[in-house]
Amino acid sequence: MTKQLLLGQTLSFSGNPLTDKWEDVTHFNSAGGVLIDGNRIGATGDGATLRRDHPDAEITDYGDALIIAGFVDAHMHYPQTGIIASWGKQLIDWLNTYTFPEEARFGDRAYADEVANRTIDLALAHGTTTLTSFCTIHPESVDAFFAAAAARNMAVVAGKTCMDRNAPENLRDSAQSAYDDSKALLNKWHGQGRATYAITPRFSPTSTPDQLSALGALWAENPTCLMQTHLSEQRPEIHWVKELYPDAKDYVDTYEAHGLLGERGLYGHAIHLEPREIDRLRETGGAVIHCPTSNTFIGSGLFDLMALAKAGLNIGLATDTGGGSSFSMLRTMAAAYEIGQLRGAALHPAQLMWLATEGSAQTLHMSGEIGHLGTGAMADITVLELSSTPAIAQRQAKADDIWDALFPTIMMGDDRAVRDVWVAGKVLFAG
Ligand code: GUN
Ligand code: ZN
């Protein structure tokens, strides 16, 4: 198979710029190259050197566009694509008013197929090459999503959302059926091609203790699966959890007591954590997923990213579509920056870019495979134009280094900044 050589500016990471000095772990090459060999990255380095060493490679010259690893969205809900940007509600009302009626439609396989394909194409157009999605309680919704991703050879994480209380009747399963359906789905999809199954209790309020225990048992039986849920997003939700689980020490304990706290656990939001909860998350290695556009849109609160990074937690970044208000990981980085400012920490562009690629990949236990512009990684690559609108271009023209040139695109960019998107060595979106 012909090798492909992409030329342009390149940005990659060899460590975590939240915990290490960002200058030490960030690698920028203004005349870089990425060699694609089949579906993987065969080499990265100096563009001219790669060109000399691989004279037969087919060349795509991106000029001064920036070649990065494809964005990794570590928490979203593809069934909520159709209700993104719905007005005026906070979490529980928002779920009841907008989310549950829409999710009820996903027992219809044709509808689920249509939204799954639409969502994945929107994500690709925004430079995102991996989605981590909640589905609905319907097994059809899980089949639809994994099938749409498989057709594009995309790495995705997904699972059937389980709820056996505090949800409309047509969106409730039971402890037993949640276990049985999830087991059948993970046996069908987990490890097939690039699919990873995540056992998915929606959150403690919509599961009985019996259901949480059943899903904890399923996870223990299938420890290579991920587990995704929500944690400590809004104050009224946390009070509700206290009422529903009077014996629990705190919100994290509602999961831990049922076998749902662990290394491969993904806990969305995690805004209002108690010190004990932070300790347990660190000790068990579970990851918290920051969803900044959602946190401001639904009015949840200000995630304390730097404090949690310093406390030693693994942190990923995500859109939380459709509680989140954008499909774009650029918009998501901008919101993370703004929330950081309100928390007294200015996140560096290197830290933001790391979170959107390597950081999220690490929470999914896929480091080195996705979110990584380096030899051996899958060739999931996004190419960004750094002057995609007149407003961005006039600011970028004044820049004197890559960070000053990139930051306007992080703060003001969107899908217009996305030039090409490669998935497993093929161009799936050409901007
Ligand atoms: N908590 C439980 N379900 C949801 C959801 O669908 N979106 C958000 N943002 N929070 C949740
Ligand atoms: Zn969510």
Describe this structure in words.
With 431 residues, the protein is of the alpha/beta class. Helix content is 39%, strand content 24%. The chain is built from 16 helices and 16 strands. Strands 5, 6, 7, 8, 9, 10, 11, 12 and 13 form a 9-stranded parallel beta sheet that branches. A 7-stranded mixed beta sheet has the order 3-2-1-4-14-15-16. Strand 8, helix 6 and strand 9 (195-201) form a beta-alpha-beta unit. Helix 4 (109-125) crosses helix 5 and helix 13 (329-342) crosses helix 14 (349-363). The model has no long low-confidence stretch (mean pLDDT 98). The structure holds guanine and zinc ion. Zinc ion binds at residues 75, 77, 230, 268, 320, 323.
Short description:
The chain has 431 residues and is an alpha/beta fold. It is built from 16 helices and 16 strands. Strands 5, 6, 7, 8, 9, 10, 11, 12 and 13 form a nine-stranded parallel beta sheet that branches. The protein has a seven-stranded mixed beta sheet with strand order 3-2-1-4-14-15-16.
